[in-house]
Amino acid sequence: MMAGVNEAREHRRPVLTVTSAARSVVAEVLAGHPDPTSLSLWVDVTGAAEGAFTYDIYFRATTDADIWDAVREDDGLSVVVPQASIDRLEGAVLDLSSGDAEPGLVLVNPNLPPAAPSGGIPDHVDLSDPLAQRVVSVLESLVNPSIAVHGGRADLVAVEDLAVYLRLSGGCQGCGMAKATLSEGIEVMLREAIPELTKVVDITDHASGTNPYYEPALG
C-alpha cells in the first residue's frame, strides 16, 4: 500500500473511538493469536433491528483494508471501519459494559438507521405516482438485470417526497455485501437517472435472508 495513503489515513479524524478498557480486552484476545501484529479489529454495520444498527466485530488482516476504508492506529491497536459503515459509525465509542453482568464489549453509537416512511410502509407502492414509475423503470431496466447474476432483486416499496425505499430479495437478502451493492451500485444508477432523489433507503430484513450470494463476515 502506498505511503501517501497511510499518511492520509493517519491524519483522518477517527471514525470510532476505542476506550482504554475495551482496548485492553481486545489486546488480551489478540495476544493469543500466532501473528497478532498482522490483524486489525474490524467493526462493520451489518443491518438494523428495533430502531438501531446491528454490528459485526471481528479480527481480520490489516492488509485486507482498501484505500476507502477508515484505518486508524489507536495506542497500538489497529481499527478498521469499512467504507460502507463509516457514516453509520461516525462518533461511535467501543467500550466495556458495566453492571452486574459479565463485562463485554459494547458499541455506543449516536447514529440511527433511516426511519421508515411516515405512516409505515405500505403493502403496495402507488404506481400512479410519476416518480415511482421512473424508479420502477430504472430498477427493471438497469438495476435488476445487473444484480440478477447474483440471484438478487430490488423492488420499490415506497416513495415519500424524494426519498425512495427499497426491499432487496434473493441473493441480496442477508448478503454481507448488500450495503456496498446499495450504495455503490443501486443508488448510483438511480441517482444518475433521477438526480432529484434525496436518499435511497434499504428496508430489507437482512437477518431473515436464507440464500445470500455472499456470506457475512464471521468473527
Structure summarized in a few sentences:
Helices cover 26% and strands 29% of the residues.
Task: Describe the 3D structure.
By secondary structure, the protein is of the alpha/beta class. Helix content is 26%, strand content 29%. The protein has helices spanning 3-10, 20-30, 86-89, 130-147, 178-193; strands at residues 16-18, 39-49, 52-61, 70-74, 77-81, 92-96, 105-108, 152-160, 163-170, 199-202. A four-stranded mixed beta sheet has the order 3-2-5-4. Strands 1-6-7 form a three-stranded mixed beta sheet. It has a three-stranded mixed beta sheet with strand order 8-9-10.
Main attributes?
disordered C terminus; elongated; disordered N terminus; Hypothetical Protein Aq_1857, Chain: A; 219 residues; 10 strands; 29% strand; four-stranded mixed beta sheet; alpha/beta; GMP Synthetase, Chain A, domain 3; three-stranded mixed beta sheet
Describe how the helices and strands are arranged:
Blueprint: H1 3-10, E1 16-18, H2 20-30, E2 39-49, E3 52-61, E4 70-74, E5 77-81, H3 86-89, E6 92-96, E7 105-108, H4 130-147, E8 152-160, E9 163-170, H5 178-193, E10 199-202
Parallel strand pairs: 1-6, 2-5, 9-10
Antiparallel strand pairs: 2-3, 4-5, 6-7, 8-9
SSE class? alpha/beta
Give the CATH H-level superfamily of the largest domain. HesB-like domain
Percent range for β-strand residues: 25-35%
Q: Please state the CA-atom Rg, rounded to the nearest Å.
A: 19 Å
The main β sheet shows up as: 4 strands, mixed
Query: How does CATH name the architecture of the largest domain?
Result: Sandwich
